[in-house]
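Possible regression after last week's pipeline update?

I re-ran a chain I had predicted before the update to compare outputs. Posting the input and the new output here so someone can diff against the archived version. Not blocking, just want to make sure nothing changed silently.
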Amino acid sequence: MEKLRVLLIDDNAHMLHIVKTILRGFGIKYFAEARDAADAFDRFKSESIDIIIVDQMMDLLDGVDFVRLVRTASDSPNPFVPIIMLTAYSERSRVEAARDAGVTEFCAKPVTALELYKKVSAVVNHSRPFVRTGQYFGPD
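New output (post-update):
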């Protein structure tokens, strides 16, 4: 995992610190950080990123909007990048919205190291094929 390049997106600095600390425990060394979706998309376009971990609730563009941007924007450098959504809001409708936007994995807060490890391992070791339809592009 030490070679993975992770983009962390959360408008809460404390949460960014917690997630980064957990990921460091897995051996991950490189992190790009963004506090909003617009900055995150710019970072994504300018850096080589292997995994994105994004909060669902943010101002301006939320995490679901960001996922749609990564998956469908014409200037997205890698629409196939694994995306893990991290959120305190895990109601069925929000999980379905994230899935329909193209999220690879969904992780509810408060997040545990074990749960985040399972999600990161899943996207690294068991990548899923992608599906494209008229209304959807994302992992099967």
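Follow-up from reviewer: compared with the archived run. The helical segments are 13-25, 37-46, 63-72, 92-101, 113-125. Marking as no regression found.
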